[in-house]
Amino acid sequence: MNIFFQRKLVKYFGNIKKKKH
């Protein structure tokens, strides 16, 4: 797996968690 892709996923999931509160 690409580190860049993994970082993108982490940022994406982090955004969802922030939206969920």
Our count of helices gives 1
Portion in strands: under 5%
Number of strands: 0
Secondary-structure element string: H
Organism: Chlamydomonas reinhardtii
Protein name: RNA polymerase beta' subunit
Keywords: Chloroplast, Plastid
Describe this structure in words.
This protein is mostly helical and 21 residues long. Helices cover 86% and strands 0% of the residues. The chain has one helix at 3-20. The chain is rod-shaped and about 30 Å long. The relative contact order is 0.17. The mean pLDDT is 88.
Short synopsis of the structure:
The protein is mainly α. It contains one helix and no strands.
Top keywords for this entry?
21 residues; mainly alpha; plastid
List the helices and strands and how they pair.
Layout: H1 3-20
Protein name: RNA polymerase beta' subunit
Keywords: Chloroplast, Plastid
Organism: Chlamydomonas reinhardtii
